[in-house]
Amino acid sequence: MRHRWSVRTRVTLFAGVVAALLSTLVATILMVAVNRIATEYVSDEVTAAGDRVAGELIRGYRPNPLSAGPIEFIQIVDPSRRVVAATYRLQSKPPIADFTPAAGKTIASRVVCGGTFPDDECYIVVGQRAYVMGQDWMVYAAAPQVPPLVHPTLAALVIGGTVFLTAAITYGAYRLLSRALNPVNAIRAELDEINASCPDRRVPVPPARDEIQELAESVNHTLDRLQAAMEQQRQFASDASHDLRSPITAMRAEVEDALLAPEETNISVMGDSLLESLDRLQAIVSDLLIVARLDAGTPGERERVDLSALINSELNRRHSRLTIKRDLQPGVVVMGDRLRLARLFTNLMDNAERHAEQSISVTVRSEPPNRRFRTGVIVLEVQDDGPGIEPDKREAVFQRFTRLDAARSKDAGGTGLGLPIARQIAQATGGTLTIEPSDKGARFVLCLPLALPSEEDED
After folding, report:
1. Is the CB of residue 38 less than 8 Å from the CB of residue 146?
2. What is the distance between the alpha carbons of residues 459 and 438, in angstroms, rounded to a whole number?
């Protein structure tokens, strides 16, 4: 079974590995630099010692053994490659090197391992040419090569510093992550406690202006929307149960009366009454199914629809007691679902017929593009000559199961869902549905984007 490491552990380990690698790299660079500096220092000391002896040789001073200062390995070699003088540690030793400076040069240096020296040791050897009695003599000076770690104490300090730096960075990363993730843990703990019984609770927002604060604010905004949706669903369920209960109660009362007094019951009258309640019940259930599909975001068809032709066909199928005035501009095309657009128009007409006194006017026209509709606008207006809607209540009629008092007194079967469904269809098609001011009655205005001439049908 794979062990699940927390983000804090993974990031801390990653920081520790990176810190170790970087610390090791820095330590390596530091040791290489120190080794190079130390080597250059030793080379300078060896060169200076050889130069001193070469100067003395040229002046005729050639003691044996040679005096040793900081550099203990110095030899004077004559032109026949015979050691004529040396420091105490090189007495009776053969030449420590056999190289000579290149032509035109007086000094050369090499690293010599073994030979005169022990096999496991290497020395920095500097050879200097000295012109004595018309011949070239050689002065060799040597010192032990600087080890890679220069000195055990320095190596211990560098290694200890590397370990300490790695540990400090790892610990600092752990503390920093712990402090940074504490708000996340608080958010998670609060989210675990939020449920349907306490939808008003919110996650804590940390004071620091960073991504975690933005995350907390986004979570709270999401919770706000979820709470609003839950309240809307609860209200919707309450209103739906109330509207469904009314026809069911009416049917139950009719049946109970018939059972109590069967001899006084007229089957035809009772049947008409029951059918009327069933029609209302069927209309409510049908609208609830449409609302459920729209709320679920079920996509409709995308096809080119001639709105004027569609409305003209719908009006021809309607049988109304009212006078319907038509002003339909031909050739205005939208991209949308034909059945949903027909339902939208039917709901507007049903609402207008319930409140109109004598006539309804239906207008379809196109308008130039604007900031909201960049391809052009198709405007559908449905206006009745009824009492109209007060300005402060024009948005309320688009809420589900909302019927104004005037509407309730004249309502002949409205479900309270027709106008909300119409607005949802308009919004799903990319348009708007509003109530605009008018001299008399209510004027519903639908605006939809005009389909481009080149736009093809989509599934």
Report:
1. yes
2. 39
